[in-house]
Amino acid sequence: MKRFRATYIIWLRDLKRHFRDRARIFGSLATPIIFIFILGQGLGSSMSAALPAGSTTLDYKTFMFPGILGMTVLFAGVFSAVSIVWDREFGFLKEMLVAPVPSWSIALGKVVSGATIASFQGCLMLILAPLAGVKLTPQMVVLLIPTLFLVAFSMTGMGVLVASRLKSMQGFQMIMNFIMMPMFFLSGAMFPLANAPAWMDTLAKINPLTYGVDALRSIMLTDFPSRYPFAFDITMIVLISSVMLGMAIATFSRQS
């Protein structure tokens, strides 16, 4: 129980730090809102024609919304891992690693806390769904919340994996921006991947966020043809989450 108590304490500490910073909570919603209501409105007339047959009545903002929801979870999950770099700079990470608890409980606490924060940010975005033309039912919300957490878990695991190997805030931000932007644009969040070039399609298939966006879109847009079956998307997300968590734990173990 001591091992999981350490996980709980780290989870609770990170959540308290997040919810005490209200500017961070509301500021993290600024970019998704800009994407949906400014970029979505501006590109709507030109991008609607690129949507697949059978979805010609679908507004581009509506098509974008699940992708922007995935982007919110991606950014929030990955950047929550910056606390590891912060703790290393101030010596708190070293104190945790020398504590009489296994290193995997520390890594697990960081991943679960980041996934919880990212899921919360995603749930806040659901409030904007009616403004984007997305009609949510209670059944959809019941499916969306655990799906958001799974996507957030995999993205946070990737962030923890990278953060555990870096020693500066600047280095973490530069590397994660280099990774996240291609992941976002190659996930099908902004445009359909059905007619993408072969090289882009290959990159999309190895992109973890592709399956998260496709799963969210299949839940929220029932009339839109999804890229993969929902069960396949969830299976891939669970597999990716397990791999990311395992690699993050292995990296923490080498530091202890």
Keywords:
mainly alpha, 256 residues, 12 helices, globular, 75% helix
Instruction: Give the topology string: H per helix, E per strand.
Output: HHHHHHHHHHHH
Beta-strand portion reads under 5%
> Uncertain spans, ≥5 residues at pLDDT below 50?
none
Whole-number tally of structural domains: 1
The secondary structure category is mainly alpha
Mean pLDDT rating: 82
Main sheet overview: none
Give the proportion of residues in helices.
over 70%
Describe the 3D structure:
Helices cover 75% and strands 0% of the residues. It is an all-alpha fold and 256 residues long. The protein has one domain (2-44, 56-255). The longest helix is centred in the middle third of the chain and has 26 residues, at 138-163. It starts with a helix and ends with a helix. The model has no long low-confidence stretch (mean pLDDT 82).
Secondary structure: elements and pairs:
Blueprint: H1 2-20, H2 22-27, H3 30-47, H4 60-80, H5 82-89, H6 92-97, H7 103-126, H8 138-163, H9 169-185, H10 198-205, H11 208-220, H12 230-255
Helix pairs in contact: 1-7, 3-4, 4-7, 4-8, 4-9, 4-11, 7-8, 7-12, 8-11, 8-12, 11-12
Provide a quick synopsis of the model.
This protein is mainly alpha-helical. The chain has one domain.
